[in-house]
Amino acid sequence: MIEGVEYSVNRNEILVTELNEQPFILNQTHRHIISGELEYLADEFPSALVDLERRYNSSRQNRMYFEFLIVRQWIKCHFGQADMLLDIDPNGIRNFEGCYCPKRGECETCDLFRVCYPVRSTKISKTEINVLRLFVAGLDENQIDYSTNRILAQKQIKMKYRNQRHFENEQQREADRRDEKTADAILFIIIAILLFSLIF
Q: Residue 5: which of 68, 85, 116 has the closest Cα?
């Protein structure tokens, strides 16, 4: 997982600045960045990865260069603007930026529509599955190896409580709707009685 990274884009070059490290120009030998971004794409935006692989299919024979081209295009489409946020914060969370692209809105013609406007996968990632297995095995969050799964464990716990809150809120809304319908029915009956008494 990549953490604490800022990308800067200058034409076709990507300047990578990691926390407490010297900046460098991304090339195909920087496997920790390339592998991390490819893993992220495969887990979170698989349709964008498919489009990028298709776009650079002619370079597939040279695997390192092929993967570099995919990651470079992904970064150019979503990062590289100067702002106050790290592109990938110390928790590994990406802060997407609205990057200028002369083909924005014409992405269908350049075969990158699902890259420019990616749709997040709803599929559970491998790491999330491992965390779920630990929960099913009866481990609590204190027993999970925090060095690799802390953030995902916290997300799973938050999601569990969030889903529970949503369920409780929906039950409350349903009760409120029933109360409103009952109040409307009572009001209708009272008005009908008043009108009936005025008429007769």
A: 85
DSSP assigned state of 9: E
Q: What is the pLDDT of residue 110?
A: 59
Give CA–CA dist 73/79, Å, rounded: 10
Q: Is the pLDDT at 105 greater than 80, yes or no?
A: no
Domain spans in the chain, listed from the N-terminal domain onward: 5-122, 124-200
- Name the percent of the chain lying above pLDDT 70: 82
- Token readout for 85 is 């946020």
Q: Which tokens in the block code for residue 13?
A: 């070059």
Q: At what angle do helices 63-78 and 31-44 cross, to 10 degrees?
A: 70
User: Which residues does residue 16 pair with via DSSP β-bridges, in sequence order?
Assistant: 7, 24
The answer to whether residue 159 scores a pLDDT higher than 80 is no
Write out the H or E segment, with its range, that includes residue 3: none
Could you please report the per-residue DSSP string of 82-147?
--SS-SB-TTS-B-------TTTT-TTTTT-HHHHS-----SPPHHHHHHHHHHHTT--TTTS-HH
171 φψ region: left (φ > 0), alpha (ψ -120 to 50), beta (else): alpha
Is pTM beyond 0.90? Reply is: no
